[in-house]
Amino acid sequence: IERRSFTGKERNLFSTTRHFLGRQRYFLARLGIDRENNRTCAINCFREALDLDESYEGIDKNGKLGFSHAWIARCHMLNRDMTQTQNAIALAGDYFRRQMELTPKREGYLAHQHLLEGERDIYKGLTQSAREHYMEAVRIRYDVEPYPKGLADACLGVARTYWWRNPILFTKYMRLALQAQPYVAIRGFLIGG
Q1: In the chain, what is the greatest distance between 2 CA atoms, to the nearest angstrom?
Q2: Do residues 98 and 111 make contact, with C-beta atoms less than 8 angstroms apart?
Q3: Contact in structure between 100 and 109 (CB atoms under 8 Å)
Q4: Which pLDDT tens digits describe the chain residue by residue (193 residues)?
Q5: Helix 148-162 to helix 108-124 angle, to the nearest 10 degrees?
Q6: How far apart are CA 160 and CA 151, in angstroms?
Q7: If DSSP states are collapsed to H, E and C, what string results for 78-138?
Q8: What is the CA radius of gyration of the chain?
């Protein structure tokens, strides 16, 4: 496909399909299915989406770029490459901050940044720091910019920090996650986020 001939809408649609294909390849890698090949393909899909989104002119451009960098960070977490993970998280954060400057009432970008940093801290074994990030995401998604899926993801993250450490709090946050979005149990524990 000759991408130079895309209209703006076609470029946006193709970018979105590449992004979501990347997410599916990530989930396959997370499940351990042809892990390295799927992880590499996922990163390539996100990079292709980034390339297409550079010329996107919508008001949510920075958000789109930030989300692709966030998923690249998750791909690097699978290999526990914390240097690449941190670089991608920093890029995602930069784009999310730019997006919030353009759309100040959309604090969900900040919530997503906290989810990402919490996930990174889980991988690094920093349970308390992860919990703090997840709790801030819960606060934003509950009090500031309600979004059931985002609230469920944040509650699931908090629950993960209590896994095997405090069954009562694990159960409390798992219940809150399920109330916000019932499918989160499958998504969070079987395919990992």
Answers
A1: 57
A2: no
A3: yes
A4: 555 677 888 888 999 999 999 999 999 999 999 999 999 999 999 999 999 999 888 899 999 999 999 999 999 999 999 999 999 999 999 999 999 999 888 889 999 999 999 999 999 999 999 999 999 999 999 888 888 999 999 999 999 999 889 999 999 999 999 999 888 766 654 434 4
A5: 20
A6: 14
A7: HCCCHHHHHHHHHHHHHHHHHHHHHCCCCCHHHHHHHHHHHHHHHHHCCHHHHHHHHHHHH
A8: 17
24, containing H or E segment: helix 8-30
The tokens 């703006």 sit on which residue? 8
- Would you mind telling me the total number of residues written for the chain in this entry? 193
The number of CA neighbours under 13 Å toward the Cβ of 78 is: 26
Tokens, residue 176: 């809150």
CA neighbours within 13 Å on the CB side: how many for 109?
27
Exposed/middle/buried for residue 35 (C-beta within 10 Å: 0-12, 13-18, 19+): middle
